[in-house]
Amino acid sequence: MTFVGQHTALAQAYDGITTVVAGLDDDALQQPTRCRGWLVADLLFHLLGDAQRALVTLASPADGPPDTDDVSYWRSFPPAGSVAETTRHAWYVRRSAAAFDRPSGVVRIWADTAPAAVHAAGVADPQGCVTTQGHVLRVSDFLATLTTEAIVHHLDLVPHLPDAPPPGPSAVQVAVATMNGLLSDDAVRPADWDDLTYLLKATGREPLTDRDRVALGEAAGWFPLLG
């Protein structure tokens, strides 16, 4: 995908998150999500951290060459990561989100920060590199990592929000391309999976069925592809 396409996809991903949360009252913002222990406001705070990281990263150009791309980046974060580390981060997010006097306070900051991150992405050097999480990436690959995380978490936000819209198609395709890269060229996703089912199963949000395992063959052992 071109740089313009990656920027458009990120804008669509972040706009999708905003659309989900913008009209929610404080009660709805305290609905559970697919992320264990996190309410909607908690998960939005986690996403806010990504948007803030994007602003810092895009303002911090790095010398190339890149040492990772938008797919191999995720291999630094194995699905079976440290339980203690994951628990600490989850607890940090919960306590930080709870520091707001109302859950809607997180929405207000997200609504200011996400468009700023998208704007910073649009004016970044398309040929440049940036550094984040200990890696050097091309700007377009960095945008793809942000988009993939936003789409996965969009799906995490909505199980108890029946009126929430689905994520946008361009952004979904970036996340699907990431999963395809992690799955490798030697395996094909089951034909009866649509894109959103693929993302939910590839990230362990939905378990593989016996039929899925037959269709995937030995590739079933690689799931989840991303945590």
Care to count the β-strands? 3
CATH architecture: Up-down Bundle
Structural class: mainly alpha
Number of domains: 1
CATH fold node name: Four Helix Bundle (Hemerythrin (Met), subunit A)
Strand arrangement, major sheet = 1-2-3
The CATH class designation is Mainly Alpha
Cα gyration radius (Å): 17 Å
Determine the mean pLDDT.
93
Sheet with the most strands, sense and barrel status: 3 strands, antiparallel
CATH superfamily membership, which one? dinb family like domain
Enumerate how many helices there are, as a single number: 8
Sum up the structure in keywords.
8 helices; Four Helix Bundle (Hemerythrin (Met), subunit A); mainly alpha; 227 residues
Provide an overview of this structure.
The protein is mostly helical. The protein has a single domain (3-170), classed as dinb family like domain (Four Helix Bundle (Hemerythrin (Met), subunit A)), CATH 1.20.120.450. It has eight helices and three strands. It has a three-stranded antiparallel sheet. Strand 2 and strand 3 form a beta hairpin. Helix 1 (3-22) runs parallel beside helix 5. The radius of gyration is 17 Å and the shape is globular. The model has no long low-confidence stretch (mean pLDDT 93). This is TIGR03083 family protein. One of its GO terms (molecular function) is metal ion binding. Residues 11-157 form the Mycothiol-dependent maleylpyruvate isomerase metal-binding domain. Pfam families: MDMPI_N. It comes from Micromonospora rifamycinica.
Summarize the topology.
Layout: H1 3-22, H2 40-58, E1 61-62, H3 83-98, H4 104-123, E2 129-132, E3 135-138, H5 139-157, H6 169-183, H7 195-202, H8 210-216
Antiparallel strand pairs: 1-2, 2-3
Helix pairs in contact: 1-4, 1-5, 1-6, 2-3, 2-4, 2-5, 5-6, 6-7
